[in-house]
Amino acid sequence: QVQLVESGGGLVQAGGSLRLSCAASGRNFGGYSMGWFRQAPGKEREFVAGISRSGGGTSYADSVKGRFTISRDNAKNMVYLQMNILKPEDTAVYYCAASLYGWEPTYQHTFGSWGQGTQVTVSS
Length: 124
Fold this sequence. Notes:
The protein has about 120 residues and is mainly beta.
């Protein structure tokens, strides 16, 4: 089991950038696929991006493809989400999560160990 703590959220203008970080503690971080999810007010939580155990495989929601980049540093037990060209519709609480299975959207129901989330607000 891993414990996850997100940071890096904030208020940014449309077109700006933010970098979210997720610090993991616990055993065998490298044995987990990692993902970022988000939940906007009144909406269900949705998959944003996923990354394989080695970092060699990544997957993105269509709404963020080309603007967001997920990465990980297994030596530091860290996962990152670089968010560029932010839009007001990206406003949400962002969570990182871990899965013992895959990193694609197909496996989103397998993610767990949710952190507390970090708020991202994009103003127009």
